[in-house]
Amino acid sequence: MKRRGFVKLCAGAVAGITASPQILARDNQQYRRYERVSLVDPHSHDMINVSLLEVGETYLFHYPYVSTPCFLINLGRPVQSGVQLKTHDGQRYRWQGGAGPQRSIVAFSAICAHKMSHPAPTVSFINYRHDEVRFRNSKDAVEQRSGVIYCCSERSVYDPASGGRVLGGPAPQPLAAIELDYDAAGDHIYATGTIGGEMFERYFSSFHDRLVLQLGRTDIDRAMTDSTELMRLSDYTSNQINCEA
Ligand code: FES
């Protein structure tokens, strides 16, 4: 993929999208549309049934590139759209909210917005914590709440029910959100794009050699097409590091 940096402004429908994201205008803001990719079972390769996703479980898939991990979580309660957020360079955007039959399914890039800690097969310092956990909030006070994404590298904490906004720690912006499209007729779900502060270019350059070894391929920045496997984080990584304040 040689032309990832190519950007085309467009307000209408787009056909023939390849590896390069296209920045689309929507509600006076921009989001990046990548390939529309279905989430499938890693063993049968059947499309997953969204209604069977367990509440509070952390699922992992790779999108929009073969090496970029994302979290998918069923929060167990409807999550409304309309949360206004801002990237570290001041770009404002509005998160789409939850997807699925209960609007409870959310997905985010699992690359921490601080120094890009991310899940790997050997270890994951960034994890979803469905049960109550203590952390230091943005006022450096100890707070306790459930349902947070906690990066134990330097203790950035994000709220997946509010578009991945930062609750505490050094992260300068929310996690980039993955746009989901729910097919109610089939009870299937697709990843379609991202909104928020992507860090993929820095991620590829910072972790290039390790990712090549890990994946056994050199095209770590190849776009996902057609489908991507959805698995439990516990099946992907052998060691989840959990911490609290
Ligand atoms: S890399 Fe996540 S808090 Fe620093």
Provide keyphrases for this structure.
mainly beta; binds FE2/S2 (inorganic) cluster; globular; 18 strands; four-stranded antiparallel β-sheet
Low-confidence stretches: 1-18
CATH-defined topology? Rieske Iron-sulfur Protein
Q: How many structural units, i.e. domains?
A: 1
Q: Please give the CATH class.
A: Mainly Beta
The number of helices is: 3
Shape: globular
**Which sheet architecture does the biggest sheet show?**
6 strands, mixed
Q: Quick check: average pLDDT?
A: 90
- Say how many strands there are: 18
CATH superfamily: Rieske [2Fe-2S] iron-sulphur domain
What does the secondary structure layout of this molecule look like, with pairings?
Blueprint: E1 9-10, E2 22-26, E3 29-40, E4 58-62, E5 69-74, E6 84-86, E7 92-94, E8 105-109, E9 126-129, E10 133-136, E11 142-145, E12 148-151, E13 156-159, E14 165-168, E15 177-183, E16 188-195, H1 200-206, H2 208-215, E17 227-229, E18 231-232, H3 233-236
Parallel strand pairs: 1-2, 3-17
Antiparallel strand pairs: 2-3, 3-16, 4-5, 4-18, 5-8, 6-7, 9-12, 10-11, 12-13, 13-14, 15-16
